[in-house]
Amino acid sequence: MGSLLLNPERDGDNGELLSATLTHSNGVFEVIFTGNCNKCGEDITNERPGCAALGQTFHVACFTCKQCGRQLAGTSFYKAKGKVLCEQDYRDTVDRCECCGNAVIGRMLRALGRIYHPVCFTCSRCRRCLDGVPFTADSFNHTYCVACFYEKFAPRCAVCSQPIVPEEGEKESVRVVAMNKSFHINCYRCEDCNTILSANVDALG
User: Fold this and answer.
1) pLDDT single digits (tens) 70-81
2) H or E element, residue 86
3) How far apart are CA 153 and CA 1, in angstroms?
4) Under CATH, which architecture does the 1-14+106-152 domain have?
5) Which of 32, 72, 180, 185 is 20 to 30 Å apart from 83, CA to CA?
6) Is residue 11 a contact partner of residue 108, using CB atoms and an 8 Å limit?
7) Would strands 56-59 and 50-53 be described as parallel, antiparallel, or unpaired?
């Protein structure tokens, strides 16, 4: 049958959603941080309040999106590939899911040279999620769980009509081909005495 069992690759996080905390009271900033701004190196003061992000302190005016310059204090932001980005700019730059077309935020899967949300990577027949489980694909790159692939593509026994699939723990199936038909080894029997004929063939070499 020539099928190849594959496993999706987990790429980890495509970017981590973070937030910059900003302490204030009654609309007036309360500076509770000591030290200097990690970006400009100057003191954080009442006149130039600070925020905490990425385990460091910054002036509110200094902690900005690398792409558009928007201030990020008090908002959600992403750090990806060493850059700090606002949520909108991050979504504009990340990879998109092959299945749904939306931005892949957080964990992604790579399979068949494409990128997917883990929940979008499913069997094209039964829709079972294939995240972390073996799968295979047809010549059109349609993905299948192993059970559905065999159900759809495996040769069927001419006697019992069930698919001929590998035994548990095996990678390849064994069948008897006779009269242009396929048979399970145990189904290929003499019509008169019901003897398993494949056993006789093996015994005779």
Assistant:
1) 998 878 888 877
2) strand 83-86
3) 8
4) Ribbon (2.10)
5) 32
6) yes
7) antiparallel
